[in-house]
UniProtKB/TrEMBL annotation:
Pfam families recorded: Phage_base_V
Domain of life: Bacteria
Domain annotation Gp5/Type VI secretion system Vgr protein OB-fold: ranges: 24-89
Protein name per UniProt: Gp5/Type VI secretion system Vgr protein OB-fold domain-containing protein
Length: 221
């Protein structure tokens, strides 16, 4: 089949100007280990052998990897017009694989799962994770926000031996120090409470002391 395809391309090249022309085809197989594809050339449905799939950014074990789906329309080019040196380059939307309506000047990376990275025309950057989102940082992580930052979740856990807040902290709900298991709390200034404070089961607002003359003293004032 591969020889048949090469013969057909070579014959067309001889009829033209002795060089293989750029052709369109459909991806019929994909090898992720080699980042290579087989393509059914249109017309005729003749399948190529394994040919490299182009990428805008490549290196030894790194680069941009946009794995193809079977059935995608792809452009096949031939180095120096040689039928033995084919390569798959650009892929195209078509009547089956329809594009999204992206505004002029914007850039979107959208996965079939719905996850996306969108660069909007007004400068906003939108990140959408259809499932979990994981970030691994080998060094330090620094985030600077000129406006307000809001984190909304069913629960938040900060797993660190030390946490530091340089400004005021407002807590809208209950505060359980030590996770209910005990621990020490140190305050460098005054502590003000509109309600009662209890220590060891004893009320600060309503506790009494034994009176040297018998009985107990009144509550604190």
């Amino acid at each position: 089949m591969i020889a048949q395809w090469q013969n057909q391309i070579a014959a067309r090249a001889r009829q033209a100007d002795d060089s293989a022309r750029t052709r369109l085809g459909v991806i019929s197989a994909y090898d992720p280990a080699q980042f290579a594809v087989k393509v059914r050339i249109e017309p005729g449905k003749v399948e190529t052998g394994w040919i490299p799939l182009g990428s805008p950014w490549v290196g030894n074990g790194w680069g941009a990897f946009f794995a193809p789906a079977l059935g995608e329309t792809v452009e096949v080019e031939f180095q120096e017009g040689s039928v033995d040196a084919g390569m798959a380059s650009m892929r195209f939307f078509n009547d089956v694989d329809r594009p999204l309506s992206v505004p002029a000047g914007e850039g979107w990376l959208v996965h079939q799962s719905g996850s996306a990275l969108k660069f909007h025309g007004d400068g906003r950057v939108e990140v959408i994770a259809a499932a979990d989102l994981s970030v691994a940082v080998a060094g330090n992580l620094s985030a600077t926000v000129s406006g307000a930052a809001t984190l909304k979740a069913s629960s938040v856990k900060v797993d660190a031996p030390n946490s530091e807040f340089t400004g005021n902290v407002t807590i809208g709900g209950a505060l359980s120090q030590g996770g209910g298991q005990g621990g020490n709390a140190t305050f460098g200034g005054s502590v003000t409470a509109s309600g009662d404070v209890r220590g060891g089961g004893i009320s600060l607002a309503r506790h009494v002391h034994p009176d040297a003359h018998g009985g107990t003293t009144g509550g604190p004032q």
